[in-house]
Amino acid sequence: MQRNLRLVIALLFVIGIAGFFLGRAGMVGSGDTVDVLVWTSGEKQNILQPALERFNTDKHTISIDNRRYVVNARSVTVNSGDMYKLLIAKLNQNAEFPSSAIGPPTVVSPSTSDWLAQVNLEVGHKVFDVDNLKSIVRTPVVIFTYKEMAECLGWPQRAIGWSEILNLAESADGWAACPTAKVEWGKKPLVAFTDPTVSSTARSTLQLLTLAAAGVPAEQFRPSDVNRPEVRDFVKRFQATVDHYYPETLKLQTKMFQGPHFLHFAPVEEYTLPWLYQGKVNAESVPGGQVQQRPITDLGYNVVAIYPKEGTVWHDNPFAIPNEPWVTHGQREAAKVLGDYLWSEEIQRKFMEWGFRPGTALPFADVLTPKLGVDPQQPKALVGRLPSESAKAIQDSWRDVKKSGVAVLVLDTSGSMSGTRLDQAKQGAKRFIDAASPNTHVGLVTFSGAVETRVPIGPLSQTRFAIAQAVDTLTASGQAALYEATKRGVDMAGSYSGVPGEAIRGVVLLSDGAGNAGQVGLSDFIQVQNKQEQEVKVGVSGGPGVKDLLGAGFVSASKPGNPVHIFSVGIGEADWETLRIFAEASGGVVVRGSQSGGGDALAQVLELFSKYF
What we know:
The chain is of the alpha/beta class.
């Protein structure tokens, strides 16, 4: 009897435990989930990705038809300009979202909701309720500069803006008019700008420059105002000061580490300054060329944010759910739960640690301080929101106001380029000329053991098909006259006189190995120095032997008639140290390309380089 009683009690206990867990399973949907995909601009991903991992671990749930579902959130980086293009293609042409975007977004968060207002305009209906979007975080557009340069202009006692930079750049004296200017800065102020078709900061800055010239409130700016002579003239004059363009903010950030010799002023988002001070930006450093994270003060530089006196805008980083059928009712409810989590004090403080201002009323002045190059009391001068039609008109004016470009493609056709590498180089060269601004003048040089000018520089409208045809005939063989080919490209770009006014001139070099042939050594056209600033002679071969050397400019006898930048794409066993020296000497950039892992990855890199012109 007692034995039977014990069995009954044990059975009831087991049934109770099972019932408890079955009840729990019913609460969460027995493994059922609702997926939320967030498209985010890249600068937020550093904080967003770990935050979503924590969110998923905590098993947040929603109730749909009296059933509980677990919310599973993930994020993918999609640049703001790309978000706009992908949404337009989907909504107007029913195009599929690419695999890189993972799938249809439940939430989109570009840097600024201005992109989303543009989507509404382009598709003809309200995809996003722009007027009622809530910010994940905020950050204003500011002017980056070095503290000593700002003080040279009278900061902080004097308000500084775009007009002061323009006047400085147009002055015959340049920095020489400033008693405290340093010789290492050079006489000419160096202004950088990113591509407004991709970069939110450049898009907003183009709008700010246009509004400053128009002298009317943003709300009253009409599309036709873009063509007013004084407006067009001011924006073109400012673009004429640009030393060279950058395709994206990341490459611009790495350039800031190379000091005042390479960059003086650039529009950026405010969080960039704390990132630089906290070592959260990858620095492509001097000798060794290693990418590393370190505070900019380690290199002896102090930088500050200038809040332009003409006014600026907030980048509101919205939490936006598309009003489209691909977002289900359950996903909308799940997104609301995710939003509440992102606006929690814990997550907002994480964003603040990375230099963002909170999207809530959380105090931030004790976190974002002048020690990080920013002023928590700024910005005080703000412009309003442009009508969508006016924003589009300003964006459409870009090709007319940007500085002209002169580019020489220099392609390696040595034996090591055979196969996939050469195929992608051909594809990339074609994509470069298709993506380049119509104002660009382009030529083509190839090299193996010898150097050949395949297509002389000319207006893109006249050279694009000649370059494409020449590229199709390329074969790979022989050694690599790397230095002779690079010098040929520099000479061509520097002496070309077919473009009116000033132009951004550069060589786009693709190489997969060290130089080992040719009649020109590195020291024949590049000033190569050791750490003691003593000149060093380097012949036709570079490699590890130049690891501790620096590029200090072009040698006097070979100095191009106009400034020329060398933009290098290295792949495989490229001579990275030599490519670094090219970039240092010319104020250029080095990018690591890949001929694997994406089919056309190398071609995409070459296409991206068109944005430097």
